[in-house]
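Mods, move this if it's the wrong board.
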Amino acid sequence: QIGDVKSVDAEVGDAYGWQLTTMAGMQRERAGGGILVDMGPHVIDLLLYLCPGAPALLEYTDNASTGIETDCEMRLRLQHGGKPVPGRIELSRTRRLRNSIRVEGTRGTIEWMFGERSRLLINPAETIVDTRTGASRPIAVEARWGDEIEQGGYEGFRAQIDDLVQAIASGTPPELSGESVLPGVELIEACYATRQPLDEPWFAEGLAGAGRSTRMSSGEKRVLVTGASGFIGCRLVERLHYASAWKPRAFIRTPGRAARLARMPVEFALGDLGSPV
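Not the wrong board. Structure tokens:
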């Protein structure tokens, strides 16, 4: 429908909102990483399904500092039809991104929105004349299988679950095996091994550096920052950590809102100022 594939681009991002009960997911030594190790496997699996073949990592950047990353971007060389295809993945826990995979071809684009099961957006390269204005305008067509209804939640994964149960019961290989994820795991490991700092001028402005040790010197003092996961509180912790002699301890009520703070190896305290205990 769109001709030869020219590029593949994926973006997934929004303000982090998972309801966490502990800080394990916000600590590098316990989580292994941030948004890349969290959402990366899902996105990479989909891209390698669209473009089967060994991917080549060209560049990877993230904002992890000495903690875990909330934002990252990678550029790849994928394979489609035996030809190299440029690819890009951008992930974020702090910003709303496009949340889709977009495949650009010589005759238009196809776009799939994350969370959909059977619908696509097709944007042909040609335009249509708007009879009201006389101007040529691009068009977008929604397409789906005519005999398949949209399914959410458990039903959206029913075919995969049934296939796995059948494989266990019959002793036959499932359609998807654990081995299929190895190329994605290798790519993620290559990203972390070659990471470069992500340019964030809005974050670095006025800060001394993003990699200083948190070991207290004789001149350092400790300070507890309440409301540390909020917009102002988080910026205050960043400035105290990177641009002062103070060692901040971040007091937060909801672990899931500490995504931006987790970039730094600051000490966390969980609690609620309104609690009598």
